[in-house]
Amino acid sequence: MPIVYEEEIRKKAVLDVAEKMLIAARTAPKARGVDNLVISVAEKDTIELIASKMKEMAEEGLVPDFFVRDANNILLSDALVLIGTKISPMGLKYCGLCGFSNCEEKRRHPNHPCAFNTGDLGIAIGSAVSVAADARVDNRVMYSVGMAVKELKLLGDEVKIVYAIPLSAKGKSPFFDRK
């Protein structure tokens, strides 16, 4: 009777968890029921592209040097969950959480984040990482990776804020005790 070693199924298991994370992010509560999220999974070739872009951004002095550390870090991941949001005000007459008096005034500043969009993004990220934690898959939320994803427009032109969650299932998490 043949046996299957964990090493043989690890990547598939991590990708299965990544898919469940996408669903958790999608079904997380959203302000007024409006969904502005774009959610995806990146694998090896795309992870390498993102890491290369991060290093390029650091070399050009556009971002801090720790982007190189994070770029090398994601190369150790089996998958990368990407979660971003479009900026679209909720159409509220009385709010001001974004710093403008109302959504109408905020619309005159299309690149300025809506507090509800960023709040929804945070809730979705929390839902996604809870799935990874429940599955005992190592992960870390990284804005640095999201900046490169945004620069590459991997989630489209409309997505203005992106976070990435690298995933790994090894003997020790590569996402902590980083140098």
Major beta sheet summary? 4 strands, antiparallel
Q: Give the neighbour order of strands across the main sheet.
A: 1-2-4-3
Q: Could you list the spans in which at least 5 consecutive residues all have pLDDT below 50?
A: none
Number of domains: 1
CATH superfamily: NADH Oxidase
In the CATH scheme, what's the topology name? NADH Oxidase
CATH architecture: 3-Layer(aba) Sandwich
Q: Please write the string of helix (H) and strand (E) elements.
A: HEHHEHHEHE
- The radius of gyration is 18 Å
How much helicity do the residues have?
40-55%
Q: Count of DSSP helices?
A: 6
**Ends distance:** 44 Å
The averaged pLDDT comes out at: 95
Q: Quickly give the structural class.
A: alpha+beta
CATH class annotation? Alpha Beta
Number of strands: 4
Range of strand content:
5-15%
Secondary-structure blueprint of this entry?
Elements: H1 6-27, E1 37-42, H2 44-59, H3 66-74, E2 79-86, H4 103-106, H5 115-134, E3 138-139, H6 143-152, E4 159-168
Antiparallel strand pairs: 1-2, 2-4, 3-4
Helix pairs in contact: 1-5, 2-3, 2-6
